[in-house]
Fold each of these.
Amino acid sequence: MRPEAQVRLAQWAIWLIPLLWAVNYFVARKAPGVIEPYTLATIRWGVAGLLLSLHARAELRREWRNIAQVWYQYVVLGFCGMVVCGAWVYIGAKSTGAVNISLIYSASPVLIAIASVLWLHERMRPSQVLGVLMALTGVLHVIVKGQWGALGQVQFVVGDLWIVAAMVSWALYALLQKLWPSPMGPTARLAATCWGAMPVLLAGTAWELLQPTTPPLTLHAWTLGIAAALLPGVMAYWIYGWAQRMLGASRVAVTLYLGPLYGALLAWLVLGESLGWHHLLAAALILPGVYLVSRAGP
């Protein structure tokens, strides 16, 4: 394919990335009663890890000594990125909606920016401070369902707290990747991280399978797990990395602001979830806030 055609294809493909990641919210909401959270996360990242390892097998074989020397890094990264941001999201989805998940999760770049200031001593511009305040206000607006004047009467949903924990963990995952640079490429590193998560995920799966209320692993359960592995897992990461090479990181990153919109539309069209005014107001705070925090320039 000619270079110009590859660029045009990349320009269209980047609009698929937030849609592919939004599929995970759909999977999370369909999983209760079909497959347990740790089992679902194990299938997702086990299948993804296998496919990624096959693709990067030469690099993994070449770098195995480096991996063995810093094995604990992959365990920590796996816990943050695949256990908390995998199994815990599925736990949260038992009691909160896909719209809430997508909106709360969308504020993770804000926490990354705050942590970069505190840990990496990066500077934050006044516009970024404004963005932080806007985005965090939007997240709280989702959690209190817009009922600031009657906080004592708000029915807080425990699922939202699981998603907040996942949002914090994703920010930690991103920060640790900066603090722990790797000689490996992104595909091999992600594969190693998948395997670093497996001990905790398998332990959680074993515990779930011993519970009398755990549903059997049906074809429906495997379909959800494999869909989560292929669409928001391998395919989304692959398109993201390829599009970055074609178009540059900043042009690709802008489309990720569409994640909450895609997630909300998918929840409305497919899951039948309702959209409240507090969701719209939260989106109006979070998305511009994330843009202000993330944009380059003085």
Amino acid sequence: MPERPHKPALVIFTDLDATLLDENTYSYKDAAPALAACKKAVAPIVLVSSKTFAEMVPLHSELSLISPLVAENGGGIFFPAGVTDIPKNCVRHDSSWFRLDLGTGYKRLAKALCEIQGETDIALEGFSSMDEQRVSLLTGLSLAQAKLAKLRYWDEPFVAPALSPQDRARLKKAAAARGLNITGGGRFFHLHGGSDKGRAAALLKSWYRRQNPDARFAALGDSDNDIPMLEQADFPIFVGSKGKLPESPANLAASAIPGPKGWNSEVLRLLKKCGFGV
């Protein structure tokens, strides 16, 4: 079913882990009422995550979404083959999806992380050096899910125990010298380059505004790597721990409840505010 004829008035960008999905169970059941309300309001939900495309597709299908999705912290945008107006610089990913590459290639990132570790003498462990058992242990994913989490194109998650503020600054400086960025997520740091969630959200805003020039955008997240996406939104909403509340953007709304329960209440409130009669 094509997206274009819907002319969506409100588009919702959302992070997954600890936002739409429970941090421990990876369940969205606490957000089910708001998800149903979005479907009724024809308000597209765009999944924007550090997860891989392979991890996100089953959830996209389970939620019966027809919107694009953004994988690996904005490294790539995937458009379902059924939508109209697919950007010309997309490539065919498979029979069901087109892909818009935005980020730095994964081999370069894995090599750079090793170089940064040697240069800074800070112990770093990236996904590229982990087996599926190790990824499963750190994430709580099953081995099958951990296998999907390792199918990466543009983002290298890594752990770095007991980092001081000075160590973080050194890591970011070493990454910047290579034209790369380090951001923090819920469980991991992420090394990436040439892209972030904000750049991907900006491109999708332009895409949706070709369908409806008056479309407005909400974004929900819980971590530092969500800030660029939140800064792109008309309605930025933080559903993380109050101790992690970012200073930007200035119009940020903060949920009193973290995770999918907060997602549910905030999205229902927003739909009502925007006149969807929820």
Amino acid sequence: MLEALRSSSRLERILLQEDIEQGPQIRSIVEGAQERNVPVEMVGRRAMDRESNTNKHQGVIALAPDPDYIALDQLLLDATGGEEAALIVVLDGVEDPQNLGAIARSVDGAGGHGLVIPERRAAGVSPGAIRASAGALQHVPVSRVVNLSRALDEIKAAGLWTVGLDDHADQNYTDIDMTGPVALVIGSEGDGMSRIIREKCDFLASLPLRGQIESLNASVTAGIMLYEALRQRNP
């Protein structure tokens, strides 16, 4: 909530449950809303439950318009226009909002420039994803594309190398040079990358697994890759 107030995100109003304890965090939210001229309404528990999409509102809800997605060409222009090499994450069918939020949090933490997600059969920027991102989705640009394969063509045309994470790839993730502009491609929770997306990638890399499981969670994989890129760029 505080991240939303501190960012440039649009907020329509904030609802506070009538019997909520007015502690320091609530006071900070009210003060932040006043600074941004966001109306604050006191409502009953039933009204809070009706407005909540998650049933975990804890007595405070921010109502916002539908999320703003950035056009892919604008995301690429912003990512390649600075002094640092571009670093974006492309998600191929990640359906869990919690994973999307966690990945956005890692993108923000590692200094990445944005996320690319497909329009169909994938998690979008929802209240659950925003909550899981701990505010990161208020700062990380997200482009939602109709055709992920064509989006990869645009990404490559903009000068980024595409690195796909594949459990069966022969090359270890630490052997991939990520000091230049790169897009990390992460597959879905169950099936990984689709065949056509896998074939579009310039490189395929795997993470070593020493235990009994066959793969890692998509958000864990993305976090490892993002911080390997950061390590290479800042040895």
Amino acid sequence: MSSSRKKAIIRDFSRDWIAGYLPPDGFVDGITVELLGLDGKVLSLPIDGMKWICFVRDFNSGEPANPERLLRKTFAGRPRVEGLFLRLRLKDGEQIEGIAANDLSVAAGEGLFLTPPDTRSNTQRIWIPRSSMEELEVVAVIGGAPKKRATATVHDGQESLF
């Protein structure tokens, strides 16, 4: 595991959660995740029981039942951030939307990262294991502004300098 660790909250389908520290990526080891607990012990947790892993700003959110503070799980309108606009339905029937990177990480690996709709909430990124997904829908591919290509124009046989 890398030396830089981020604050994370792991939630399972029984609504229980555990807080600790994980590296920003590469934290999956086969079928488990190794979490450095708040007490300093390394816990090996199975992926199949996990609902999601939320990388958070702070552990002390003031809400013991909802430390992730995911109040808004869907976008109010079309997101403005580049990437894949995804809608997921989890095994427990809960729906969540987010922005994923427009690369092969969506199709490969044990799970995928989403940026949640409310970027001002306590949760900065969510990792959802494939075992907790029941349905995955690509709502839109959101690209950046088209890049202007520099073109040289010719006037009377001479290139324009300005």
